[in-house]
Amino acid sequence: MSKERLYLFDTTLRDGAQMNGVDFTLHDKLTIARLLDELGVDYIEGGYPGANPTDTELFGTARKLGATFTAFGMTRRPGRSTSNDPGLATLLDAKADAICFVAKSWDYHVRVALETTNEENLASIRDSVTAAKQKGREVLIDCEHFFDGYKANRDYALACARTAYESGARWVVLCDTNGGTLPHEVERIVADVTQHVPGDHIGIHAHNDTEQAVANSLAAVRAGARQIQGTLNGVGERCGNANLVSIIPTLKLKGEFADKFDIAITDDKLKTLAQASHVLDEMLNRAPNRHAPYVGESAFATKAGIHASAIAKEPATYEHVKPDLVGNHRRVLVSDQAGRSNVLAELERVGLSVDKNDQRVNRLLDEVKEREAAGYAYEAAGASFELLARRVLGRVPDYFAVEKFDVNVEQRINAVGERVTVSMAVVKVKVGSDSLISAAEGNGPVNALDLALRKDLGKYQKYIDRLELTDYRVRILNGGTEAVTRVMIESQDETGARWTTVGVSPNIIDASFQALMDSVVYKLVKAGAPA
Ligand SMILES: [Zn+2]
User: Fold this and answer.
1) The last residue of a domain, from among 265, 281, 313
2) Gap from CA of 87 to ligand 1 centroid (Å)
3) In angstroms, what is the span from residue 297 Cα to ligand 1's centroid?
4) Are residues 372 and 442 in the same domain?
5) How would you list the strands of the sheet with 419-431, edge to edge?
6) Which of 56, 157, 451, 502 could form a disulfide with 381 if both were Cys (CB 3.0 to 4.6 A apart)?
7) Do 253 and 336 share a domain, yes or no?
8) 515 CA distance to ligand 1 centroid (A)?
9) pLDDT band at 333 (very low <50, low <70, confident <90, very high)
10) Rounded to 10 degrees, what is the CA torsion of 440, 443, 445, 449?
11) What integer is the mean pLDDT of 293-306?
């Protein structure tokens, strides 16, 4: 039996960005878009062009993605024509493959918020879909407050959905905007909608206000919807959106869905899910949820207790799915096997072949455990992991040694009477028998240190000339006087390759220095610089 296709629509960059404390820069958005594209979702909603400078810039340049890159915005304003609506014009001009319009579908909102008639709202949906289609865009209509609207005025909510579909929208997305609808209601209402709009044109957009956004999404699919909207880790306004990180493995691994549906995420990509989830948390500067289903550190940790011997004999009997399928691993705490196979898999991924019985693998595992306990996060800093592994395996040349560095920060009044803060760094490096001293000024101590370190590395300079730091993140771990600082640095070279390194220390300069050193050494290793 051939399977039906289910589509995944990610709105981390648009709805996810509505969450308190989330403030994506353009760089963040591009990084997350790449992460999502790598994972293999069908649609990536980037944001709301025209609403803020970041989103306008995001859609100012064509983004080459495998996924359908989608811009979000409003349908034409009531009482205006499509050719006389600047907001709509911005949206139509956005460099996007698809446009997702948000439209009212609850007559109460039409009257109170839009202050227009039901007929004019339908005309606005119709005209907006037509205008976007004429521009060659795939069109989605988010029917805002659909479920509440349906309960208040079923005929009108259905008329909005039908109008969108009949005007040519590829997807009519039913939104539980307030997040209060329950799974059995979603299933019943979506089933009714499929009598008016074909299920393979219906999407579900659920919010988590009763902790049932995932359940509501699955209920909609059971009733016939074929697109699911959600976000990575369920980030989103208030209690969040439907969590794709829980939905994806459920669709792939649970028979009721896996036997009926195909999604674009391959088995191999599913194995990167835990990592993708943790990388997003790192970018948001928050600790991953240990208890997150499928991907949390505790998701497959079984406390031995009375089951100890059974777990030791047959750990799988205590698991609902195999942890490695989602890139997680078992933590039974009776052997090091799990960590060991994890390290071996990681070594294979970075292309370091080593015999699985090699004693050095145990040493590496101990080292990784010890360092992760101290605050290093290797999952999100692949380049530092690779260097650590190469060092334990004895394969990193001593290219150069930093004999000392000095960083200072000075606040003073400059020549034109302004108060300025200037940082300066001096680095003394030994390359072979040469001692090189470089100094640089920067807009902060880490910037100055970076510039001085990379100013003159003698015979290695040519390898790092076009190295660029593209991101710098700081997180304070533990808190209180015992706090340590974790610094993550992302670098990029002339080929466009990117890598992330990590440093940990009670001192932020020291942590930054470790991450900078790893970045430079990693580049030299990759470039095959001679020792
Ligand atoms: Zn939403």
Assistant:
1) 265
2) 20
3) 28
4) no
5) 401-413, 419-431, 434-442
6) 502
7) no
8) 38
9) very low
10) -30
11) 76
